[in-house]
Write a structure and sequence with these properties.
By secondary structure, the protein is mainly alpha-helical. The protein folds into two domains: 210 residues, Rossmann fold; 90 residues, Tyrosyl-Transfer RNA Synthetase (Orthogonal Bundle). The chain has 13 helices and five strands. The strands form two sheets. Strands 1-2-3 form a three-stranded parallel β-sheet. Strands 4-5 form a two-stranded parallel ribbon. Helix 8 links the parallel strand 4 and strand 5. Helix 3 crosses helix 12 and helix 10 crosses helix 12. The chain binds adenosine-5'-diphosphate and tryptophan. The site of tryptophan has 12 residues, from strand 1 and helix 7.
Length: 321
């Protein structure tokens, strides 16, 4: 079974990204053959500054490698290092109706918010279909917002297969994990970089402490018992603590004498403890960009092997040899 994941290279990542997406992706390396890439071409639809794009791609690579992406076991590359995808994108464009693209929610949402549409944004789902189909992907784990893109991929693949009386393109399934709860931010709303309520994964010690100390609570005093069931600190502790540690924390909430500041420090300690090993590996990679480049070049060469065989097959089918 082949699993394919595309990751938008966004600058900083927070613990919501980690528990919501990254951790699962890393773990999926044990479920099947993982193909994972940094969606650098897709990022061009929103990032128009060279330095920002370069930095985001590099940092995404470093973050995923530090967090356990195994370049031997899996195939991990930067999308724009395997240009075959663009050829498939063009071929598939000729089997994608305007109506299909016009119905895309993400495109409609963006234009409704006043983002000036261009062809890249409009045809984004065709490039995503090419990503998926070029690698014969069976399973595509995605968030809810991306399900429609996987359905469009199936539509496009069906049109192509029908036109050439073939089954060369494998129909993918979207896999949406409903179990992972939304990680709350420091204000209790969904943690998101656009709400400014994040706890960063690789922030400075001082910065992360500031974010944790800024978690919103009620104003109960030291000498009052506190309710853990409605507390934002406790909700975040649940991500880092085992059952017995949580039980212990519940007792501390029920017993007057400690304030929220104490619970925040407990949480901070757990966060630091949890990410410490990754921080060291990340520092190493950040300081050795050549090593990162080599890993990505190795990943691209593995991906290209699969991609070039597939594109040859497709070129042949359509009459491009
Ligand atoms: P942000 O909302 O900070 O911009 P993104 O939209 O870039 O985050 O999300 C990247 C990935 O992380 C997505 O797969 C998304 O489902 C996951 N994710 C983001 N925030 C959370 C959260 N608060 N809880 C769980 N998963 C999240
Ligand atoms: N569109 C996806 C996102 O915004 C990223 C992506 C690009 C992707 N190509 C893909 C995801 C192929 C899965 C498969 O998150």
């Amino acid at each position: 079974m082949r699993i394919l994941s595309g990751i938008q290279p966004s600058g900083t990542i927070h613990i919501g990204n980690y528990f919501g997406m990254i951790k699962k992706m890393i773990e999926s390396q044990d479920d099947g053959e993982l193909f994972a890439f940094i969606a650098s071409y897709h990022a061009l639809t929103s990032v128009k500054e060279k330095e920002v794009l370069e930095k985001n791609i590099f940092e995404a690579a470093v973050n995923f490698l530090a967090l356990g992406m195994d370049p031997e076991k899996s195939t991990f590359w930067v999308q724009s290092d395997v240009k075959e995808v663009l050829e498939l994108y063009w071929i598939l464009s000729n089997h994608t109706s305007m109506g299909l693209l016009e119905r895309a929610h993400s495109y409609k949402d963006k234009t409704a918010r006043g983002i000036q549409a261009n062809h890249g944004l409009f045809s984004y789902p065709v490039l995503m279909a090419a990503d998926i189909l070029l690698f014969d992907s069976n399973i595509v784990p995605v968030g809810k917002d991306q399900i429609q893109h996987v359905e469009m991929t199936r539509d496009i693949a069906n049109s192509f297969n029908h036109a050439y009386k073939t089954d060369v393109l494998v129909l993918p399934e979207a896999k949406v994990d409903e179990i992972v709860a939304t990680v709350p931010g420091t204000d209790g709303a969904k943690m998101s970089k656009s709400y400014g309520n994040t706890i960063d994964m690789f922030g400075t010690k001082k910065g992360v402490k500031k974010q944790v100390m800024g978690i919103v609570t009620d104003s109960k005093e030291l000498d009052e018992a506190k309710d853990y069931t409605t507390c934002n600190i406790y909700k975040l502790c649940e991500l880092f603590m085992k059952e017995d540690e949580l039980k212990e924390l519940q007792v501390r909430y029920a017993t007057p004498g400690e304030g929220y500041g104490h619970f925040k420090l407990t949480l901070l300690e757990k966060i630091n403890e949890h990410f410490e090993p990754y921080i060291q590996r990340r520092e190493h990679l950040l300081n050795n960009p050549k090593e990162v480049k080599e890993i990505l070049a190795f990943g691209a060469s593995k991906a290209r092997k699969v991609a070039s065989a597939k594109i040859e097959q497709i070129r042949e089918l359509v009459g491009l040899v």
